[in-house]
Structure to design on (495 residues):
C-alpha cells in the first residue's frame, strides 16, 4: 500500500492512472485504492453475483460514499444473454454493463456485443441515448434505424421508448438481432386465416389481440421473465401520465406502454391505471436527458402525416365510398395526436430521424417489403445519394445549436453508402419489374450527374442489377422492358 501511495503521488499530473487488481486483495488495500480512484469497474462473471455483493457489503460501500464510483461489468457466458437479478445492486454501484464473451451468434445481434464499448463510453463521459416514438405498425421502422446506427458504428448506451417504440426498444435492448426481430414481428402479428377473410380483418385482429391478452404470450418466448435491468442495453418504457419504467418485468413494461385506450382497458399495477404512453409523451427524449444522456437521437415514425384518410382527400369531392371503421378512426386520431406532440417531444434531442413510412397502414404489422414501399424508399435514397455523392466523406461531426462540437464519428466511404442504399432493395425487389426499373433509372441518373470518382461503385451495382434481372425474368420481352429505366416508379419510361 505504501508503494501505491508513492506511485499515485508521483503520477498525480498524469491524465489517467489505471490500477488492475484481483478481486481477492484485502479490504484494507481495496478501501485505500477506492479513496484514490475516480472510477472503479468490478468485472464479475454472472455466476459470481452473490459473492460480488457480499464483497461490496463488506467494504461498506454506501457508508463510505463509494457507490457513485463503482460500475459492475457482468461477464456473460455463451448461455447467459442477460445479467443476473440483483435487487439491491443500486445500493452498491451506480451503473452496470453486460459484456458478452465470446461474441454471440444469431438470433443475438450487435446490441448484445456492444457492452465493452458502452463501458468505454462511460469512462469517457459519453452517454448516447435513443428515444423511440409511438406509431403502431409503423414503429417497426425503429428496428431499421437501430440497424443503421449499428452499421455506422454508433453504439447506443440507453433507449427510451413509448408505445411501439417501447416494444421495439425493449426487444432490441434484450440483445436480439434487428432483422431477426422484424421478421418475428411480421410472423407473430400475421392475422389468422379467419381474420384475413373478414372485411377489415386486420382491425378486428388487433382488437382481438388486445381484448384477449394475446401480446403477453406472443412476447414471452423471446423475453421470458427477464427484467429491464437485466437487458444488454438500459431501456426505459413510458406509459400514460409519464410513468417511466426502468426496472421490473420487461414484458409488463411493454404491455403498459402499448395499452391503447378503447381497444383495451387500463392495466392496473402498483396502484396505477396504465394506458398507452403516446397520449402524453410520444417521443421520450426528455427521459433520456433526465437519465444523464448527453447526446440524444430521437426517432419519429409519425412526423410525416398523409393527408388522405380512408379515401377522403382534402380539396376533393370524391371518396372511396367506404366509411372508416372505428378502429381505423381511433388509430388515425392517435396518429394525429402523436404528430402534434412530436414538436414537444423532440426538443431535447440533438438529432431527429424521421423515416417516411406513410406507405404503411397503422395496423399493417405484416408488410415489410412490397414494390410500392420500395419505390417510395428509392425516391428518398435517390435524393440522399445525390447529396452524399457531391460532398466530402471523412470523419463526421455533429454540433448543437450553439455550434459546440458534440460528437465525432467515422463515416462510411462512398461504396459503403451505395451498398447500404441499394443492395437490400436489389436482393428483394429485383423480381418486381416496377422496382427493377425504378432502381435502374436511379443508378443511371447518378452515373450521369455525379463526379467521375463516384461512378465505379454505381456501375458495379448497375451490373449486378442487370444480372439479377436476367435471372428473375426468363421471358425475353419482360427482360427488355426491365432494361428501360422508370424515373417515376409507376411503369412509364423517362420519356
Amino acid at each position: 500500500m505504501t508503494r501505491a501511495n508513492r506511485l499515485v503521488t508521483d503520477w498525480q499530473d498524469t491524465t489517467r492512472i489505471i490500477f488492475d487488481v484481483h478481486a481477492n486483495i484485502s479490504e484494507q488495500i481495496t478501501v485505500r485504492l477506492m479513496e484514490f480512484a475516480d472510477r472503479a469497474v468490478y468485472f464479475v462473471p454472472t455466476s459470481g453475483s452473490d459473492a460480488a455483493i457480499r464483497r461490496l457489503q463488506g467494504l461498506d460501500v454506501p457508508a463510505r460514499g463509494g457507490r457513485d464510483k463503482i460500475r459492475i461489468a457482468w461477464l456473460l457466458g455463451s448461455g447467459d444473454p442477460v445479467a443476473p437479478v440483483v435487487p439491491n445492486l443500486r445500493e452498491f454501484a451506480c451503473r452496470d454493463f453486460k459484456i458478452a464473451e465470446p461474441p454471440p451468434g444469431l438470433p443475438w445481434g450487435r446490441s448484445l456485443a456492444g457492452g465493452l464499448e458502452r463501458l468505454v463510453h462511460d469512462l469517457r463521459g459519453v452517454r448516447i441515448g435513443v428515444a423511440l416514438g409511438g406509431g403502431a405498425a409503423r414503429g417497426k421502422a425503429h428496428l431499421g434505424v437501430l440497424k443503421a446506427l449499428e452499421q455506422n458504428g454508433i453504439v447506443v448506451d440507453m433507449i427510451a421508448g413509448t408505445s411501439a417504440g417501447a416494444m421495439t426498444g425493449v426487444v432490441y435492448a434484450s440483445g436480439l438481432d434487428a432483422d431477426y426481430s422484424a421478421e418475428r414481428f411480421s410472423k407473430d402479428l400475421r392475422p389468422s386465416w379467419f381474420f384475413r377473410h373478414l372485411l377489415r380483418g386486420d382491425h378486428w385482429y388487433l382488437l382481438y389481440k388486445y381484448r384477449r391478452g394475446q401480446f403477453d404470450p406472443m412476447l414471452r418466448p423471446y423475453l421470458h421473465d427477464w427484467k429491464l435491468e437485466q437487458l444488454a442495453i438500459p431501456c426505459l418504457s413510458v406509459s400514460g401520465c409519464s410513468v417511466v419504467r426502468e426496472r421490473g418485468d420487461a414484458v409488463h413494461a411493454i404491455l403498459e406502454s402499448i395499452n391503447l385506450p378503447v381497444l383495451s382497458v387500463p392495466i392496473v399495477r402498483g396502484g396505477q391505471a396504465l394506458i398507452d404512453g403516446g397520449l402524453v409523451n410520444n417521443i421520450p427524449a426528455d427521459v433520456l436527458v433526465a437519465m444523464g444522456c448527453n447526446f440524444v437521437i430521437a426517432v419519429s415514425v409519425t412526423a410525416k402525416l398523409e393527408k388522405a384518410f380512408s379515401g377522403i382527400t382534402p380539396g376533393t369531392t370524391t371518396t372511396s365510398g367506404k366509411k372508416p371503421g372505428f378502429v381505423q378512426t381511433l388509430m388515425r386520431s392517435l396518429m394525429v395526436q402523436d404528430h402534434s406532440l412530436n414538436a414537444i417531444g423532440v426538443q431535447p434531442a440533438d438529432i431527429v430521424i424521421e423515416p417516411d413510412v406513410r406507405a404503411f397502414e397503422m395496423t399493417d404489422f405484416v408488410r415489410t417489403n412490397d414494390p410500392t414501399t420500395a419505390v417510395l424508399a428509392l425516391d428518398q435514397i435517390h435524393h440522399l445519394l445525390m447529396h452524399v455523392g457531391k460532398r466530402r466523406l471523412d470523419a463526421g461531426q455533429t454540433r448543437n445549436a450553439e455550434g459546440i462540437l458534440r460528437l465525432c464519428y467515422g463515416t462510411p466511404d462512398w461504396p459503403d453508402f451505395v451498398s447500404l442504399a441499394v443492395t437490400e432493395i436489389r436482393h428483394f425487389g429485383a423480381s418486381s419489374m416496377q422496382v427493377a426499373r425504378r432502381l435502374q433509372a436511379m443508378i443511371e441518373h447518378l452515373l450521369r450527374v455525379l463526379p467521375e470518382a463516384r461512378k465505379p461503385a454505381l456501375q458495379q451495382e448497375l451490373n449486378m442489377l442487370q444480372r439479377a434481372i436476367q435471372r428473375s425474368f426468363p421471358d425475353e420481352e419482360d427482360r427488355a422492358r426491365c432494361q428501360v429505366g422508370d424515373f417515376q416508379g409507376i411503369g412509364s419510361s423517362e420519356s
Notes: Residues 489-495 have pLDDT under 50 and may be disordered. Residues 326-345 form the longest helix (20 residues). The two ends are 83 Å apart (CA to CA). DSSP finds 20 helices and 13 strands in the chain.
